[in-house]
Amino acid sequence: MFHGREHLWGYGRSHFDTEIAAIYTWAEPLNSRFETDGPGPILATMAALEAQRPGADPEKAAEHHRYFTNQADRMDYPRYRALELPIGLGIVEGACKILVKQRLDAGGMWWNPGGIQSIGTLRALYRSGRERWRALWAGCPYAAERGRAPGVPDGPVRGDRRGRLAGASSRRAGVFAHCLDNGK
């Protein structure tokens, strides 16, 4: 939401230039509706404002407008709230730091983007429950050879105390990537 609000106020500045009162009068009502109504009202208000009067910096205004157009699906906050998904930078960035960054920055580890994506996807599937984890491995040659999905515990689905997948090591990242690439 932070970036959306930043672009909202940036659009106001690019349209109204130094008219601080006009920027505030235009942006503040949209700012308060952003979380509850998503980007739709903002895009509609931008279109109405562009039709009423030209902006002070049309290139910047177009850049901010393009941000909302390109990110509209990601800013559908009412739908995300209805699905009870976390919204906001604090939760997401905290999760990235704890779940991803610490794992990737551990001593002696080097990662390429494909390995990072594979391990991240696997961890998400693993933590989503046994059914999703087993569905991933159902058609994988590695699992067929061994007669089971790797790392499926008998107890609750958890990583170790550092959040690592049980049975997942960087040596197997290539096997995991192969199964993920095959859409399994």
What can you see in these coordinates?
The chain has 184 residues and is mainly alpha-helical. It has two domains: 81 residues, no CATH class; 73 residues, no CATH class. Helix content is 65%, strand content 0%. The protein contains ten helices and no strands. Helix 1 packs antiparallel against helix 2, helix 7 crosses helix 8 and helix 7 crosses helix 10. The longest helix is centred in the N-terminal third of the chain and has 18 residues. It is elongated. The chain starts with a helix and ends with a helix. About 12% of the residues have low confidence.
Main attributes of the structure:
single chain, 184 residues, mainly alpha, 2 domains, 10 helices, 65% helix, elongated
Report the sheet-strand fraction: under 5%
Low-confidence stretches: 153-174
Shape: elongated
Structural class: mainly alpha
Question: How many structurally independent domains?
Answer: 2
Count every helix, treating DSSP H or I runs of 4 or more residues as helices.
10
The succession of helices and strands, N to C, reads HHHHHHHHHH
Number of separate strands: 0
Mean pLDDT value: 75
Distance between the termini: 33 Å
Overall radius of gyration? 23 Å
In helices, the fraction of residues equals 55-70%
